[in-house]
Amino acid sequence: MLIHPQFDPVALQLGPVAIHWYGLMYLLAFGLFILLGRWQIRRRPDLAWSAKDLDDLLFYGILGVVVGGRLGEVLFYQPGYYLEHPGEIIAVWRGGMSFHGGFLGVLVALAWFGRKTGRGFWNVADFVAPLVPLGLAAGRIGNFINGELWGRPADPELPWAMVFPHVDDIARHPSQLYQAMGEGLLLFVILWLYAAKPSAAGATSAVFLIGYGVLRFAAEFFRTPDPGIFGVLSLGLSTAQWLCVPMVAAGIGLLAWSRRR
């Protein structure tokens, strides 16, 4: 059984300026997006993307991730808390970003970018999908460093079961690391290999929707459910799991549509 290291959430203090690990993980995610995007441009010249296109897209994507992710956390998971503490809504450096909210924010950003550049939504979405998972992994590592989003109780005999002392003395699943490996590394490998060759418009995006939805749904069985607006819902599933259901359904429908084309 392991003990969470209780990391200091502040990675570096420069006078009055505190640089948080969570913020550094977001910078790492954006850096990986650029590196992988340039690699994708080189290996798939048929996509007709340039480095400038990638840089512009990142700007739109950052807006979508930050605004959508924070609003999703506020509206989907902790509306009561933020209603009582409205000043903390902008404190993104403390953690608290909803994937599903960020996902909706990114969809708006991609549509905006696609319309502005005349590329079309699916052209942009299919290009972006393989670049996202490693950034998600970085975010989950940030959650682990912060000691947040801890797992459900686990068998103390499990070699990697972990006690989070700031929570209690119960051995728990390090679910943040499960998600980093599943929705991060595994999903990246699947999408990177799938996107290596041309496919129908929307197909790569569909694989992302299905892959993330299934892997997140599974990971929630090991993670303490977020309180959500309604807490744990019917069938004993968490708010996040129910949000994954339409995501997977949309992915299956999109994949069928793209293959018919």
Descriptive terms for the model:
261 residues, 9 helices, 60% helix, 6% strand, EC 2.5.1.145, lipoprotein, transmembrane helix, transmembrane, phosphatidylglycerol-prolipoprotein diacylglyceryl transferase activity
Polypeptide structure, described:
- The protein is about 60% helix and about 5% strand.
- It has about 260 residues and is mostly helical.
- Strands 1-4-5 form a 3-stranded mixed β-sheet, with no helix packed on it.
- A hairpin with a 2-residue loop joins strand 2 and strand 3.
- Helix 1 (about 20-45) crosses helix 2, helix 4 crosses helix 5 (about 120-130) and helix 6 (about 135-145) packs antiparallel against helix 7 (about 175-195).
- The chain is globular.
- About 40% of the residues are buried.
| Tally of separate domains | 1
Classification by helices and strands: mainly alpha
Q: Can you tell me the residue ranges where pLDDT is under 50 for at least 5 consecutive residues? A: none
Helix content: 55-70%
Number of helices: 9
Mean pLDDT, to the nearest integer, reads: 90
Largest sheet entry: 3 strands, mixed
Order of helices and strands: EEEHHHHHHEEHHH
Q: Kindly provide the radius of gyration, computed on alpha-carbon positions and rounded to a whole number of angstroms.
A: 19 Å
The fraction of residues assigned to DSSP E strands is 5-15%
Give the end-to-end Cα distance, rounded to a whole number of Å: 52 Å
Number of strands: 5
Shape: globular
Quaternary state of this entry equals: single chain
> Widest sheet: strand order?
1-4-5
